[in-house]
Amino acid sequence: MRTVRQRYFSGIQPTGELHIGNYLGAIKSWIELQDEYEGIFGIVDYHAITEPYNPEDMPKMVMDAALDYLAAGLDPNKSILMIQSLVPEHTEMAWLLNTVTPVSWAQRVPTYKEKARQLDVSVNMGLLSYPVLMAADIVLYKSSIVPVGEDQLPHLELAREIVRAFNGRFGDTFLEPHAYLGRGARIMSLTEPTKKMSKSLGPQNYIALADKPDEIRRKISRAVTDIGPGGGPMSPGVRNLFELMSIFSSEETYSHFKRLYDERKIRYSDMKQKLADDLISALGPLRERRLALSLRPEYVRDLLIKGSRKAGEIAKQTLIEAKEKMGLAYF
Ligand code: AMP
Ligand code: TRP
Hints:
The protein is mainly α. It has 2 domains: 210 residues, Rossmann fold, CATH 3.40.50.620; 81 residues, Tyrosyl-Transfer RNA Synthetase (Orthogonal Bundle). Helix content is 54%, strand content 7%. The protein has a 3-stranded parallel beta sheet with strand order 1-2-3, with helices on both faces. A two-stranded parallel sheet has the order 4-5. α4 packs across α8, α10 packs antiparallel against α13 and α11 packs across α13. The longest helix has 29 residues. The mean pLDDT is 95. Tryptophan binds next to β1 and α8.
């Protein structure tokens, strides 16, 4: 007998090319969990608009994100692909949750504090209640796990607090969600390896899932290391390359270079060449699938519309339940 798969929601903002940090922190786990759980994968455009963006770019960015999800191996027969703004229950639920969330909780979130400091325009309400919308995404599907990278842990912590606040006031309704961290939950920048790999640091600091082989080779060859020859504690850049090698290369390759490092005989140029080869063979099939899918925009569009509709049906049930608990069911 087929058991019912538990559901969960996870999402990525459509803010440009997805990189191997996004892949390892989130998408790879989504794919590994596809048989065990019913995943609802959102392209969270309402989150993306909390920071400055160009409206003309948004449709392409949403489509690009969908292509990346599918090319990475998300199976539309097992998982639901959706666009957040097509399911209004998300913003409606966020409003309900806003009313049980003290402003001070939102102000304390490290990513909010950091962004508030960086942005030169004044902070908008959307940025402050960003994690409340994220909590809404999560609770609408009664998610108990949420696969994300390490940087999202404070958001998950806040989501749990919001769930406790809601359940405490209105009775048990939502599950407390827990972060699911896969291997590679914090991949560092290639150029500034004390910071996490991120779109905002520019294309040289990340390997995009859609990068061509020569781009991958060039970026890896320029990755910051140290002057060598190894031994002792690793510098951040070297540690990051070993982390990538432990994921993308064979065990033999990893131990070979680790031994050279320990024996102070490592040549980083050799290590980088091998790592680039392995990255290219791991990402090659993905790039090809992406190229093939990009020729079928109607198919992808259709999946997104159907997926959003399906997600909306599930979300609606939870929203009704929450409104009833809050005394907002009248007729
Ligand atoms: P974002 O691009 O901020 O929407 O992030 C999408 C997902 O990728 C989230 O689950 C992040 O935690 C994850 N992520 C982003 N950057 C990294 C990174 N450098 N290492 C691991 N996971 C990451
Ligand atoms: N805040 C997440 C990020 O930047 C994206 C996100 C929005 C998300 N809603 C979510 C992730 C719900 C997991 C679950 O990466």
